[in-house]
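queue> holo job accepted (zinc ion)
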Amino acid sequence: MLDLLLPQRCVVCGRGGRQLCAGCREELPRIEPPLCARCGAPTAWPVERCRECAGRRLAFASARAAVGYDAAARTLVHAWKERGLRRLAAEAAQLVAGRVPRPEVEALAFVPADRGRRLERGHNPAERLGLELAVLWELPCLPLLERTRGGRQRGSSVAERRSVRGAFRATGTAPRKVALVDDVYTTGATAAACATALRAAGARRVEAVAFARALRRG
Ligand SMILES: [Zn+2]
Ligand SMILES: [Zn+2]
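queue> job finished
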């Protein structure tokens, strides 16, 4: 509610007006083809697997994101998550819907927050994004997953993989085709762990969708 009352400033550049001004919105790095068909990493030419995902068992069929996770995107995600600026979830959803093709699925799911984080923030950013996207894509957004334990570590892929393995389970039967929504795709380990749980609950195909994606260089 708070963000409805406060004067609006762009969280990236500080200019008065909207929480994300048109200029900063435009400058968020686009993730444009050619991409790795599976993990969505930008590649020199279209490939089925890339250096980032080759040899990894990833339970999702594809992963796509709207923007590269650069400094501006990081600032935006931080304001959205930690400061609870909910309107930014709608901005993020619009960017996703504008840049990522609508997945051919029956429902959206989202990465569940661990309880501590949810209590601390009062919201789950991935859930917010899922709910906003559900409106734009005219799909149901369902709480298909829950955590079995703990939080997740981001940053190093080893830490993330270790922390998310077996950390999720389905709350019931999953639809055959599901898109999994998260705010940031870092190594794919979280998306893969969630997709594994959805597939164990009956999903045949899981597509991961994120607002931002970490981009490796070199
Ligand atoms: Zn701005
Ligand atoms: Zn790849």
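queue> The helical segments are 2-5, 22-27, 71-82, 87-99, 115-121, 125-137, 157-164, 189-200.
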